[in-house]
Amino acid sequence: MRLQVKGNFNSFRVARGLKYHRTYHIPPKTTLIGLLGAAMGIDETNLSPLFDSVITNAILTKLSGTASDLWLITKLKANMKPESSPIIRDILFEPEYSIYYAITEFSRIKLKDIIDAFYDPKYALSLGRSDEMIEIRENREVTLQSISDGYFKNTILPFNYQDFFDS
Questions:
Q1: What span, in angstroms and rounded, lies between the C-alpha atoms of 80 and 63?
Q2: DSSP states of 9-50
Q3: Cα(10)–Cα(69) distance, integer angstroms
Q4: What confidence tens digit (pLDDT) does each residue in 108-117 have?
Q5: Which of 72, 69, 123, 124 is nearest to 93 (CA)?
């Protein structure tokens, strides 16, 4: 199935930074499974089975821009004395995605259940942080075709990535 979604401000933190939080341009699988869990009403502690039974990925179809957000957080040091620390977080402005979900042959959920869940989600739908809401613009079943060798496993790419390395 394919969802066409649009966000206002979204970010998908690259985990390597402490003071500067870079963002991926495409939501990682954990975010996409969390989105599905929110739609289906599955508690975050019960999402583990979806990682093996649902194949998912996203394609960035439009991005209006990027920005940096400055935060000031307070940390308690060892002596319990508060200390303020600035953090810069990259954010995406008005990203639009095509998000794909497919089920494996041993999945306990059906594709129709996924489609229905996005028509009537149990929880608010967000990509990234909990306040980064999205608008669903399309929700429909599509036929995905198997591709030949040479593509990443468990991902959807509109091109053969090896073409870039053959020359």
A1: 43
A2: EE--B-TT-SSEE-B-SS--HHHHHHHHHHHHT--GGG-HHH
A3: 11
A4: 899 999 999 9
A5: 69
pLDDT digits (tens, 9 = 90+) for 130-159: 889 999 999 998 887 666 655 555 555 656
Q: How far apart (Å, rounded) are the C-alpha atoms in residues 16 and 143? A: 37
Give the type of residue at 61: T
Residue with tokens 């942080």: 129
Query: Which of 94, 121, 136 lies closest to 2, judged by CA?
Result: 136
- Count other C-beta atoms under 10 Å from residue 33's C-beta: 21
Q: Which two tokens stand for residue 59?
A: 């394609």
pLDDT 10s digits, 90-105: 999 999 999 999 998 8
Residue (of 68, 60, 69, 70) closest to 7 by Cα position: 60
First and final C-alpha spacing in the chain: 35
Strand partners, 128: none
